[in-house]
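Researcher: Predict the fold of NAD(P)H-quinone dehydrogenase.
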Amino acid sequence: MNRVVIIGGGPGGYEAALVARQLGGEVTLVDTDGMGGSAVLTDCVPSKTLIATAEVMMTVKGSGELGLRVAGRPADEYAYGLGIDLAKVNRRVLDLATAQSQDIHEKLVAEGVTIVRGRGRLNGIAEVIAETENGEQTFPADAILIATGAYPREMPTAVPDGERILTWTQVYNLTQMPEHLIVVGSGVTGAEFASAYDAIGVPVTLVSSRKTVLPGEDPDAAQVLQDVFERRGMRVLSEARAQAVSRDDDEVTVTLADGRTVTGSHCLMAVGSIPLTENIGLAEAGVEVDDRGYIKVDRVSRTTARGVYAAGDCTGVLALASVAAMQGRIAMWHALGDAVTPLDTGIVSSNVFTSPEIATVGVTQAQIDAGEVRAIGITLPLSGNARAKMQGIHDGFVKLFCLPVTGIIVGGVVVSPHASELIHPITLAVAEKVTVDSFAQDFTVYPSLSGSIAEAARRLHGHSTEQLEQQIHL
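Model: Structure tokens for NAD(P)H-quinone dehydrogenase follow.
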């Protein structure tokens, strides 16, 4: 009894399929759009490819400080001697996404997964119906995984048209540089696109309903990013809530709740997402959802229906491809009787791909400030790091949290170029309960940005809360 049917080919779905085949399952994967889901086709892979181009522009813009002479002057047609062919950039973005999707498809087929192109829905807890171009097909199942993902939330007063008013799935259709891009929403998606378009030379206005950008991130990190945005010339409208967006020919107008208006050439709506859980037979099968439509799951990805699991953005656990993939793997390990460790969101690292990047793992500053966790923290600005000075890095820091007395590392924040790479040693420390003393005794390369992480650990050396607090506040 090992028939597995998976609905959705994103990270949760395709990783689950690979594990199920490894464990001897007979696997059918039903998907509508292509392997990789939104993570590969319209979200992570495309956006980070665009950001890679933006990173090169930022490097060139800062090259003068390093003694480089680049042809062209800011007054020229192309500042710093570089121009952006946005049509070519977006073609590359979409080509890479398609190629990555095809790679995943070929790997699944090679591993023996049956892929069905169609829209899947539950027919009870032991059968999936797929609506395909050739009609309905029925697949009996001993275990079902729902990995249907989510889609961009739309405001009824700001309906995207795919040309001037855009969601993050539509922005890659642009072939000309926007004259002025208004980004509505300052969460991760909004901040990343605002950062990228600002870097490639587009005037950007970021509409943020909160006091600072990235309200869900470390407050010190968010403040650094907002300061960087404003210093580079981005207009950040804080505590401003968009009420409506309208278009008049080649102009868009964003109306704010306080009556103010902002006019630009394009508007990118980044106001959250909605789980794809409607009309797929959940209620009839006994699969419960919460008041926002997310499927309720436990730490081994089980839903409230026996034999039915769920993974990824449709669960609302953490909207990260890495978490979706792990949820999918865990589901199959559990369903097919392998050893399984329940999902621990406390050791999940995440990254915001802005410039600079913001990476986090474990206990947060907010938890400590609220008294939920008793921990000690220290922040080391990168301005004192030798490698940072060599590379012309002025903004950013390393923050490390540890438990008092034991010194066990429980969390950290890195704000820096390539913070997504630097967070890994902290993630390992959190997962393996490494102490600051053990961490500090391991070698780091000199000079290196990672040296600041070890230095933070050394600064946290102590024997009691009182001694640590005195040491940190000297």
